[in-house]
Specification:
The complex is a heterodimer of chains A (296) and B (291). Chain A is 10% helix and 35% strand. Chain A is mainly beta. The longest helix of chain A has 10 residues. Chain A is globular. With 291 residues, chain B is mainly β. Chain B is 9% helix and 30% strand. The chains are: A mainly beta (296), B mainly beta (291).
Chain lengths: 296, 291
């Protein structure tokens, strides 16, 4: 296990609620100019789960696993919820039939962090019996822990939206002065698209484009599962996201593919470097469901 | 040469007002430094279409000329100006000391801003919040025999003056620079509505900046983006070519850089390019004399 400053981290509460699905009345337009009634962003997705395949869902477009939540109250409170929640943090249900039950943060999906418009979702996993008790609008409280997390002797590595429990369980090893991270797949930079230019990196996600169909088979994108750990090559996410030769970002798959130009499979960034100090070790089992002990 | 359907295009009025600049204090650059950025909105007296997109002190996303925003909807990018105005359309000042003066629409910067060029003597008379009206014309424009090529935000005037020729059933477009698709950042994957969005050539990796000589890019340059198709949205398609106009300047924010309005896009085999250092709308639209 890596040495980190986890004993120094603040633990505090942020509050949100389950937000509804956000279909577009006028259809999305796909990369090749076709109308699409997309489904899967927002709400409670009963049959999309961490550990499950991202491809193959009818009309799915950036479909999210589990329960989509967002902050409540004034914009600044919402920002706190989106910014501070970390993957692996515990979530307590505060209202409704599921009151008192608990879940786990499994990803962040959203864009245009600086705007209030659009989706800014903190995704939460609940076991099936709890899922059936939940309703849109139910209040949630996240016990936040992870902001400021650092690995000893890797001061220039940025850890983002990453809880200490996930960091400890990811099987990361130090080899030749680099962090060697078990990953399901390495993604070349020319597939990595939306998310570039977005900041702060603690909000939202990167996208792995699926709008050029031959890429899907060529890079095995249809093997990916929600919650998979992937290595995004030659991009950095230190203080905002961008292409960076020699940089690397570790991401957690947080949403399914898209037929819209420049969009695709989402990856919530959790570890970033500009100095080349991250390498991947291919492990088909590198998924947060296993690391966080979630039923799949 | 080629024939367009310009006689069948609708010409309609759209309007905006000169937008005052604002600031949120320091932003954070790609390498984690604070920066007080300047350059968006307002009237730019010192930077115009045809100038370098790089090198102005503290500049970020600098918008040449005059920046206007629509007021007919609460969000500027949903206004008629944002959707219908095309590069090369005629602009007219309809209020204030410069009333009656003419200018040219030069592009749209996704967040909020539409940009208009005016001669220097007109800039001196303009005031923030003056109203500008554009004769919008270009939506639906096509070149005969190229129905599968997508044209966007392109006035008939610019299309005619870009030096495009036809060779072996392909359009040959003069370009000032070629950019690989992977360098395209902020704006990629956003709203499929091509008309309202630009996307940025990322200038936040020094190695790529040198490799692709991005400090040479000029405002108004015609550029080719390789392996990107921008018919409905902006994204990857191997072998496709997108032709764009550089509409704003450099940035130090990760994933940002000079913005490009895609104006012509096609699947592989429809567009060829030819390097021409003067492939810039400043010359094509008569905003400055060719050296």
């Amino acid at each position: 296990m890596l040495d980190s400053n986890k004993e120094d981290l603040l633990k505090f509460a942020v509050q949100g609620e389950i937000v509804p699905a956000i279909p577009l009345r006028n259809y999305w337009v796909t990369w090749d100019g076709k109308p699409k009634m997309a489904i899967g962003v927002g709400g409670i997705n009963y049959n999309l789960k961490v550990g499950g395949k991202v491809f193959g869902w009818a009309n799915g477009d950036r479909a999210e696993p589990g329960v989509a939540t967002d902050g409540t109250g004034p914009d600044s409170w919402k920002t706190g919820y989106r910014l501070y929640s970390c993957i692996g943090n515990k979530v307590r249900v505060l209202s409704g039939e599921g009151k008192g039950e608990s879940g786990v943060v499994i990803g962040k999906h959203g864009l245009r962090a600086f705007q209030q418009r659009g989706a800014h979702h903190v995704l939460v996993h609940f076991e099936d019996d709890v899922l059936d008790m939940l309703a849109i609008g139910d209040k949630m409280q996240v016990k936040v822990c992870g902001v400021g997390l650092k690995i000893d002797d890797f001061e220039d590595i940025r850890l983002l939206s990453l809880s200490p429990i996930l960091l400890d369980n990811m099987g990361i090893e130090v080899r030749d002065g680099k962090l060697e991270v078990p990953v399901v797949k390495e993604i070349p930079n020319f597939l990595i698209s939306q998310g570039a230019g977005e900041r702060p990196s603690e909000m939202g996600n990167w996208s792995i484009q699926t709008c050029y169909p031959p890429d899907i088979e060529r890079f095995g994108l249809d093997d990916l599962r929600f919650g998979d750990v992937v290595l995004l090559k030659d991009v950095q996410s230190d203080y905002g996201r961008g292409q960076y030769k020699g940089g690397a970002t570790i991401g957690i798959v947080c949403c399914g593919p898209s037929d819209i130009s420049g969009k695709g499979i989402g990856a919530t960034n959790i570890i970033s470097t500009r100095s080349g100090k991250i390498s991947g070790r291919i492990d088909p089992q590198a998924n947060i469901a296993q690391y966080l002990g979630l039923t799949v | 040469m080629f024939k367009t359907n310009s006689d069948s295009l609708i010409i309609t009025a759209v309007q905006g007002v000169i937008q005052p600049p604002s600031s949120r204090g320091y932003s954070v650059t790609w390498d984690g430094s604070p920066k007080l950025s300047i350059g968006t909105a307002s009237i730019s007296y010192s930077v115009q279409i045809g100038d370098l997109a790089y090198g102005q002190a503290s500049a970020d996303h600098i918008e040449p000329g005059v920046t206007i925003q629509g007021r007919d909807k609460p969000v500027p990018s949903e206004c008629a100006l944002a959707i219908l105005a095309c590069i090369g359309n005629e602009a007219k000042v309809v209020s204030g000391d410069a009333k009656g003066a003419k200018g040219v629409f030069t592009g749209r910067h996704a967040g909020s801003d539409d940009m208009v060029w005016f001669p220097e003597e007109v800039l001196e008379k303009l005031a923030l919040l003056d109203t500008i009206q554009i004769k919008a014309c270009g939506v639906g424009i096509k070149i005969e025999g190229f129905d599968d090529v997508r044209f966007n935000k392109l006035s008939p005037r610019l299309l005619q003056n870009m030096g495009i020729s036809v060779e072996d059933d392909q359009l040959v477009v003069p370009i000032a620079k070629e950019v690989p698709g992977f360098l395209m950042g902020s704006g990629i994957g956003s709203d499929p509505c091509m008309e309202t969005n630009d996307y940025d050539i990322q200038t936040t990796c020094p190695e790529y900046v040198d490799e692709y000589r991005l400090k040479e890019v000029r405002l108004g340059d015609i550029v080719a983006i390789r392996d990107h198709y921008c018919g409905y949205g902006r994204g990857r398609y191997e072998g496709a070519t997108t032709i764009g106009v550089v509409i704003h300047g450099w940035s130090d924010s990760s994933g940002h850089g000079p913005g490009v309005n895609p104006v012509i896009s096609a699947y592989p085999g429809k567009i060829k390019t030819r390097l021409d250092p003067h492939a810039n709308i400043a010359y094509y639209l008569g905003l400055r004399n060719k050296p």
